[in-house]
Amino acid sequence: MPTIGWIFIAIAVATLLGTLYMLRKTANKMPIDPETMKRVQARKAEMEAQEAREKNRD
Question: How many domains are contained in the chain?
Answer without folding.
Answer: 1
